[in-house]
Amino acid sequence: VLFIAFILTAIIAAAVLGPMCITYQRFGFEREYRTPFLLASNWANLIYQVWPDIPFNPITKTHFWEYLKTNARGELNLGISIFLLLGALSVFVIRLKESVPEHKVSNFPKYTLGVTVIISILFAFLNMHALAVKSMRWERVLPDLATGTTYFYYILAGIIIYVLRNRIRGALKHLDFFLLFCAFLFGLLAFGPYYLTANKSVIASPVAFLQYQVPGFSGIRATSRWGLLLSFALAIGVTKFLASKATNRRFNFFAAIFVLISLLEVVPRFQIPDFRNLSAYHWTPRETDIFLKNIPGKGAVLELESYPGNEEQEIASDNSLGYVLFSSLYHGKPLVTGYASHSPNVFYKYIFHPEDDKLSFKTIDLLRKFGAKYWVFHIDGWLEKDVKLLKDGVGGLKQITELDNGKTLIYEDPDPECSVGYSDVR
């Protein structure tokens, strides 16, 4: 039944997500890990970020907690309930204990254990190879792979699974254990395709190949988003287990205490958040926005404060790609560039990482492929030679105004035409 449900879910997902995937491929969107080793977490960060700093955390007053805070490395932030984790771990252990192996093996099958070790080694190699391939694809320097440590943990995990295989098979007959088993997979996905050791070397995750090579898994760039499914599966699994024991009064008493403590954890220190100290963001139109609003027509706007363009933008920073998103709502003209966590390859090719990093006649001609009618350049802080290159290279563009005491130049393309084709996005 579960297999049939999985197949039906896959068919529905393919029908819904297939057109989106084709569109992303057509226009060159890269919705994946652009920097393969940016979001890695070490063991201290995994514990520190998962166990929040709340009154009910039993280790916050210990030296161990201070050690975690000092040595945590990485950007993972799941915010999972520690009591939910402890409850799920308890259910996991209880179900394994209750699951009696269907048959006892008198003679330890050494050849089967050997096969398990070989499979573990191959699995480790597959995931480490996925890390190496991804790093070379993005031309990043490959960090030192903790090869020996990776093989050790994979072999250890394989042996543990081998020893508990019959109990696991029996426990999977319970829906709560199956959900917790799925939560374990979601947890691996949430922690990302790699981990950092104390000396900053990399251990390949068991899901590295999935997250780098398999469509769907590779489409979620922020690994912590899998934490939503992790929390959901944990909550449903623990709830299902508690419901199955509802006839036991003594168990109900402890279950009620567990649920109460979990609810108290949601509202730490019993305080209502104070929103009075939060000030609203006040956006005001710039001279550029007012000018563009008063120009008739709906031509697109290409706005740059530097060239090449800066990928890292602040939403509330004047003249940044984030700020101009608010500007477009004011002047009502579409934007060629804007703030986004990912962009088509053609943006990286012509704006963020162009072969020629000077605004010469050639680069201006290439930028005209985007079909922008209005070109806004914020030249404050530019070198005089770069400003001269800009003015000499505008070619068929016509300067229509200077704003901000000459710090903003606005040009118009009298005959804009979008000519970015399929060959440009690759």
Structure in words:
The structure is a single chain. With 426 residues, the chain is of the alpha/beta class. 50% of the residues lie in helices and 7% in strands. It is built from 16 helices and 7 strands. The strands form 2 sheets. It has a 4-stranded mixed β-sheet with strand order 4-5-7-6, with no helix packed on it. β2 and β3 (202-204) form a beta hairpin. The mean pLDDT is 76.
Could you give a quick summary of the protein structure above?
This protein has 426 residues and is of the alpha/beta class.
Secondary structure blueprint with pairings:
Elements: H1 2-26, E1 41-42, H2 43-50, H3 63-71, H4 82-98, H5 110-137, H6 147-163, H7 165-171, H8 175-190, E2 194-196, E3 202-204, H9 208-213, H10 226-244, H11 249-266, H12 287-294, E4 301-304, H13 323-331, H14 345-352, H15 361-367, E5 374-378, H16 384-393, E6 398-403, E7 408-412
Parallel strand pairs: 1-2, 4-5
Antiparallel strand pairs: 2-3, 5-7, 6-7
Helix pairs in contact: 2-3, 4-7, 4-8, 4-10, 5-6, 8-10, 12-13, 15-16
Which labels suit this protein?
426 residues; three-stranded mixed beta sheet; four-stranded mixed beta sheet; alpha/beta; single chain; elongated; 7% strand; 16 helices
Terminal Cα separation, in Å? 43 Å
Pick out the low-confidence regions: none
For the biggest β-sheet, the strand order reads: 4-5-7-6
User: What's the story with the biggest beta sheet?
Assistant: 4 strands, mixed
Number of helices: 16
Strand content: 5-15%
Mean of residue pLDDT values: 76
Radius of gyration: 28 Å
Global morphology: elongated
Helix fraction bin: 40-55%
What is the helix/strand order? HEHHHHHHHEEHHHHEHHHEHEE
Class based on secondary structure composition and strand pairing: alpha/beta
User: Would you count the extended β strands for me?
Assistant: 7
